[in-house]
Amino acid sequence: MAEVLKVKIAPSVLASDFSKLGAEAKRAEEAGADLLHLDVMDGHFVPNLTIGPDVVRAIRRSTSLPLNVHLMIENPDKFFRSFSEAGADSIVFHVEAAEDVSRSIRSLRELGVGCGLSLNPDTPVEEVLGYLGDVDLLLVMSVHPGFGGQKFIPESLQRMKLVREEARTRNPTLDIAVDGGINENTAKMVLASGANVLVAGTALFSSENMAEAIGRLRG
Q1: pLDDT, tens digit, for every residue of 142-199?
Q2: CA gap 72, 95 in Å, rounded
Q3: Residue 18: per-residue pLDDT
Q4: Would you say residue 86 has pLDDT above 90?
Q5: In the prediction, which pLDDT does 148 show?
Q6: Axis-axis angle for helices 21-30, 210-218 (nearest 10)
Q7: Given 17, 34, 39, 42, which residue is catalytic?
Q8: How far apart are CA 94 and CA 18, in angstroms?
Q9: Looking at domain 8-218, what is its CATH homologous superfamily?
Q10: What is the model's pLDDT at position 1?
Q11: 72 Rama sector, left if φ>0, alpha if ψ -120 to 50, beta otherwise
């Protein structure tokens, strides 16, 4: 019998009001979010700059939600420890940025944090399939990383299906997350394609009632 995984909603802090990050984190928690998604960009791996460990540490003081730190940076291994010590519960790095994916996974395991792997829309999905048994989460980018508010790339759905099919034998409890263009309409397609963790920014932080918006994403 196939494993039924819980649908998890992960508000993306990138779309929040940065002038009141603590309050925004608390708002997401009170609205029923399952975790917070924090995008870290270095201006090299992606064409944008965002936050560092000190901001993660400040958010950690404001919420009891698990913090999922998504490293869209070059040389991610150099920063695993600093983000772990800042309060990250799980860290996601990109297959395109790691010199040695297996070594990076081992490094995160040694730190005792959850381990996730991500891939960009242009990266063949086959590049991550061999690691599904070694990670807790596989994050499928459904937009080109670097900026919020982009439109969902429909071809991402087939990639999710391939990952879920492979995970049934390699790692039945694998969380498959999707990041980019997630709203009430795309969420239905994403969940039907095998994902169970929805990363959403604008659709949640721009809503008047986040709790209702989260409920709609859950379906």
Answers
A1: 999 876 667 899 999 999 999 999 999 999 999 999 999 999 999 999 999 999 999 9
A2: 10
A3: 95
A4: yes
A5: 65
A6: 50
A7: 39
A8: 25
A9: Aldolase class I (3.20.20.70)
A10: 39
A11: beta
Decide if 39 is catalytic.
yes
Written as six digits, the tokens of 170 are 């390699």
The Cα–Cα gap between 99 and 78 comes to 12
CB 138, CB 128: distance < 8 Å: yes
| DSSP state letters, 2-23 | ---PPPEEEEBGGGS-GGGHHH
Residue with tokens 């991402």: 156
The pLDDT tens digits of the residues spanning 1-53 come to 356 799 999 999 999 999 999 999 999 999 999 999 999 999 999 988 999 99
CA-CA-CA-CA torsion for 119, 124, 127, 128, nearest 10 degrees? 50
Spell out the alpha helix ranges (H) of the chain: 21-30, 53-60, 80-86, 101-111, 126-129, 156-170, 184-192, 202-205, 210-218
| pLDDT confidence bin for 213, thresholds 50/70/90 | very high
Using CA atoms, how far apart are residues 179 and 139, in angstroms rounded to an integer?
Answer: 7
CB atoms within 10 A of CB 154: 11
Residue 37 · residue 12 · CB < 8 Å: yes
Single out the catalytic residue among 34, 42, 175, 179: 179
- In the prediction, which pLDDT does 146 show? 75
Q: Which of 139, 136, 129, 127 is nearest to 108 (CA)?
A: 136
